[in-house]
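Weekly sync, protein design subgroup
Attendees: M.S., D.O., the rotation student, P.L. (late)

Item 1: inverse folding check
M.S. brought a backbone from last month's batch and wanted to see whether the design step gives back something sensible before we order anything. D.O. pointed out we never logged the input encoding, so this time it goes straight into the notes. Structure tokens as presented (171 positions):
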């Protein structure tokens, strides 16, 4: 999702008091704060929808800033998640409980590096085993959520830009 945010009236009022360097600095600061704010908002929402811990979603969000072009990118990885990232893993009679998720027929064992992981047999034989994954995109309607917060993002950018312009003007 990309936004072209032009706040002509705010920038016109700021030009009388600030240099163009200060205005560029205010815009880049506001943009960085906006992307950080959006990352928190998105990670909280999708952790509730997908029923996974926030730290799992936060680890999949990457931010990139380009101050010359006055742009920022927020990227979120939507591939499946290994079961041990879903929460504390506990073995029970049916299989494994990872956080709030029950995985029937699974078991807990260490991999070759000694890390505890959740495994499941891929066939009825004892030999082929594989990691257990959960798809986090099945529960989430990503495009609908991003469209719903687009107006909120624009309003937040306006507030952050005004704060930065006020701070740099010294008022």
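Designed sequence read out in the meeting:
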């Amino acid at each position: 999702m990309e936004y072209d945010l032009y706040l002509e009236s705010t920038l016109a009022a700021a030009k009388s008091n600030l240099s163009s360097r200060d205005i560029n600095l205010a815009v880049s600061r506001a943009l960085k704060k906006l992307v950080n704010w959006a990352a928190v908002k998105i990670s909280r929402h999708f952790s509730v929808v997908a029923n996974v811990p926030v730290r799992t979603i936060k680890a999949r969000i990457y931010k990139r800033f380009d101050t010359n072009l006055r742009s920022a990118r927020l990227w979120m990885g939507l591939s499946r998640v290994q079961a041990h990232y879903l929460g504390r893993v506990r073995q029970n009679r049916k299989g494994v409980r990872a956080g709030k998720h029950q995985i029937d027929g699974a078991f807990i064992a260490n991999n070759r590096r000694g890390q505890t992981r959740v495994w499941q047999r891929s066939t009825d034989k004892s030999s082929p085993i594989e990691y257990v994954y959960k798809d986090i995109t099945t529960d989430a309607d990503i495009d609908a959520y991003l469209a719903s917060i687009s107006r909120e993002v624009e309003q937040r950018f306006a507030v952050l830009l005004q704060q930065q312009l006020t701070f740099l003007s010294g008022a």
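Discussion: Residues 20-50 form the longest helix (31 residues). The radius of gyration is 23 Å.
Action: P.L. to compare against the previous round before Friday.
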